[in-house]
Amino acid sequence: MKLLHYVEIENFKRYGDIQRIELEHPAVLIGPNNCGKTSALQAIALWSNGLRTWRVESEDSKAEKRTGKALNRLSILSVPVPKTRHFWHNLRTGSKDLRITVAVDVNGQPEPVTMVFTHHSSDELVYCKPAPETLANEVAFRLAAALDVSLLYPMSGISADEAVILPKRIEFLMGRGSTAEVLRNICLQVFEQAPTDWREIAALMRRLFHVQLGEPQGNDKGGVDLAYVQEGTNGEMDLALSGRGFQQMLLIFAHLHLHKGSVLLIDEPDAHLEILRQRQVFALLRDIAHRNRCQVVLVTHSEVVLGEALDTNLTLILDGKTDDLAKKQDIRDALKHFGAEHYVRARETGHVLYVEGNTDVEMLKAFARKLGHPVADALDDGARLNVYYLQDNFPGPESTPEEELERVEGGFGMPARDHFKALGTMLSGLRGLAIYDHDGRSRREVRAGGLSELQWRRYEPENYFVTPELLERWVADKFGPQELFATARTAVMTELLGERIFPENPDDLETYLRADETTRRALWRAQTQYLKLSSFAEDYFRRIAAATATPMMLRKGSLHELVEACDPSALNGDVQEKLDALKELIG
User: Fold this and answer.
1) Are 42 and 78 in contact (CB under 8 A)?
2) Which helix (H) or strand (E) holds 487?
């Protein structure tokens, strides 16, 4: 059901110049934190508030000239601000008015209805009035003023006791965002006014959360009781004991049934839900709202919802600028192949870093901190770094928890060149950097088309700092001067060197052990140039744990901690080159 066709926002919060957001059903707004997503919902809510206030106060007026009507900031419940100047873009109240246009549906056609807001010097009031062209379109104006528009914020907990509240008070608390204080009352209203609707809600909650909802009832203390029974448990539990995701969805379903024919603006309905339920909830919101003649506009960070909405209405918001992704066929086709979140992150940051796993990123961060490289701060700021993990390192069936996280967080599945080319066709000026492990294979380093492909000259990043001396010193520092452990760590290292580094000739091991420090360093580098030293280090810590009956100190995912204790001179020009390339990439 499309009640609203689009919203245009000018000079409101993050929005300076006019920005237009198409509103299909459901309309989905995505983007990073503090980009203007929630502000878009608030703009529609403010438009509705101002429109209804102006109509009520002007309907019986006999004045020949209709002036703007005053709105107190405290009465604009859905858009809380400490001062009314906070409604204005960059707080510049004197430059121009704030304008919000929403196109309402009139017989299937969009008719724009514009409200103009003017600041009052008290910082407690704003004046609102319709634009002249809006007043001239009486049909659209009256239809817009009659619309029921509600903004639901995420649930923030629920009170143990909830008194029976009059409908007007429920609307007041809902507008203020106090959803936790009215959930039982909304359910009670649905149950009393439409028992069939309540049974449908109970069935939906049973399907989603495997619970049986009871019937909301007033009690002898003037409150509302609502309990549920969890599958596999005995006895009823009060609604206050349920999870936030459960409460959030119950609120949304009840509101849609209670306010049929309305526009529902929802801020992160999936905030407390796992992936499977995020997909289910999006489909249910779409279908339930359609059957109840409602339209839903929602803000989300969910990659699941993002993918589901790509065919219908998906608007990306970055720094108050909007982009309707669903209407760009070439972008839609590409995003379906590797996920819309990849486009969003590349659009936000302007770059993509390709590495084989999260351990590589942690290693680069450690190198930058150790060398005091200027890219260190940018690497530590996760919001500025966009990483795609390559298919070369796709975790297998025996993957560790760290590798599983990489699988979920990263891309996998496409070579860097293919992935970058697909994104580059949509984002001009995109920068890319791929840093490959050597893995005993020589790659040709390429810098072309915005993508630089580099390779570690040694087997992997760990090869630049893992040495027997560093590993033994690390263990010694952790254990302290205990002779028993000192003997153990030396014996373990000698055994491991014989097995992993000098397996063919024991005399080579003896030569290495008797050599002076400079010679040992040269022998070590030559012998381990193309050996996997992360495996060597992890095996050493594993054997130390077994020999001393203590927990394993470090695993592969945390070997970057060793960098802090290494000799900076060991981090030669190859490491500096990679950090310089990263600085150029991130800026």
Assistant:
1) yes
2) helix 483-496
Residue 307: alpha-carbon gap to chain centroid = 14
Whether the upstream peptide bond of residue 26 has omega within 30° of 0, thus cis, is yes
**Residue 388: which of 434, 421, 430 has the closest Cα?**
434
Residue 153's contacts (CB-CB under 8 Å, 6 or more residues apart) are: 177, 179, 267
CB atoms within 10 A of CB 481: 7
CA angle 344, 345, 347 (to 5 degrees): 65
Q: Which ranges of 194-234 does DSSP label H, i.e. alpha helix?
A: 195-209
Write b or e for each residue in 493-506: b if 16 or more Cβ atoms lie within 10 A of its Cβ, otherwise e: beebbeebbbeeee
Q: pLDDT by residue (tens digit) across 285-319? A: 889 999 999 999 999 888 778 777 877 788 888 77
Q: 109-131 pLDDT, tens per residue?
A: 999 999 999 999 999 999 999 99
| Chain mean pLDDT for the chain | 87
Helix axes 340-349, 416-424, angle to 10 degrees: 70
| DSSP assignment string, 256-282 | HHHSTT-EEEEE-TTTT--HHHHHHHH
Secondary structure letter of residue 88 according to DSSP: B
Are the beta carbons of 51 and 113 closer than 8 angstroms?
yes
Facing residues of 295 across strands? 263
